[in-house]
Specification:
The chain contains six helices and seven strands. It is α/β, with parallel strands linked by helices and 197 residues long. It has a seven-stranded mixed beta sheet. α5 packs across α6. It is globular.
Length: 197
C-alpha cells in the first residue's frame, strides 16, 4: 500500500485530489493526520518553486511520499496578478473576488483574459521528485456566477462552455481545470509507482 500525504489545508483542493487519485493500492493521508507539521513559508518566485519546497520539506519531515500543489490565477490586464499570491490576495474568497472585480471594473470583455495554472509535485523522503503542470485559459466575468467550487471559480469563465467553474459543477470542472489536467498526469505517475512497489 502506497501512502501519500496531500500537503494542503485547502479542503476544496484535497477533495479534488482525492476524487482523481482513486487507486485501491494507495492510501491518501491529509494534514489532519500530522497535527505537528511545520508551517512552510511559500517564498518562491514561481508556482513550481513553492510546490517543490512544500512537497520536499514535508516529505523529509514526515518520512512519507508527499503531494503538494501550488496554483493560482494570472489575469492579463493585471500583468499576471494575482499569480503566486492568489490565495493571499485577501482574507477570504469573497474579498479576493471583490478585489479582482474592482480592478477590472469597466474593462471590456476582450481584455479580461486569464489563465489558471497548477504545478503538482510528488516528493519522496530520499529527494526523488516528479513535477507536472496544467493550465486552463479563460476570462474573468463581470459578476460572480454559480454555486460550486472555491476560490476564484465564480468569476472564471471557460470559453468552450461560456460558464464559470462555479457553474459547471465538480465533474466537468475536475476534467477540464488546470488542477484536473495536472492530476491526470500525476495519476499516471502514481499508477506506475504502485506497480513498481
Amino acid at each position: 500500500m502506497l501512502e501519500i500525504l496531500i500537503a494542503s489545508k485547502n479542503l476544496g483542493k484535497v477533495k479534488e485530489i482525492k476524487e482523481t487519485l482513486k487507486n485501491p493500492n494507495i492510501k491518501l493521508l491529509t494534514i489532519k493526520d500530522f497535527p505537528d507539521l511545520p508551517q512552510i513559508e511559500e517564498d518562491g518566485k514561481t508556482f513550481a518553486e513553492n510546490a517543490i519546497k512544500k512537497a520536499c520539506k514535508l516529505s523529509q519531515y514526515t518520512g512519507k511520499i508527499c503531494l503538494a500543489d501550488d496554483s493560482g490565477l494570472e489575469i492579463d490586464y493585471l500583468k499576471g496578478k494575482p499569480g503566486i499570491y492568489s490565495s493571499r490576495w485577501g482574507n477570504c474568497d469573497e474579498e479576493r473576488i471583490r478585489k479582482v472585480l474592482e480592478l477590472l471594473k469597466d474593462v471590456p470583455e476582450n481584455k479580461r483574459g486569464a489563465v489558471f495554472i497548477c504545478v503538482l509535485v510528488l516528493a519522496f523522503p530520499n529527494g526523488r521528485k516528479y513535477v507536472v503542470n496544467g493550465e486552463c485559459k479563460g476570462r474573468i466575468s463581470v459578476n460572480p456566477r454559480g454555486k460550486w467550487g472555491f476560490g476564484y471559480d465564480p468569476i472564471f469563465i471557460v470559453p468552450e462552455y461560456d460558464k464559470t467553474f462555479a457553474e459547471l459543477g465538480e465533474e466537468i470542472k475536475n476534467r477540464i481545470s488546470h488542477r484536473g489536467k495536472a492530476l491526470k498526469k500525476m495519476s499516471k505517475i502514481v499508477d506506475k509507482l504502485v506497480i513498481s512497489e
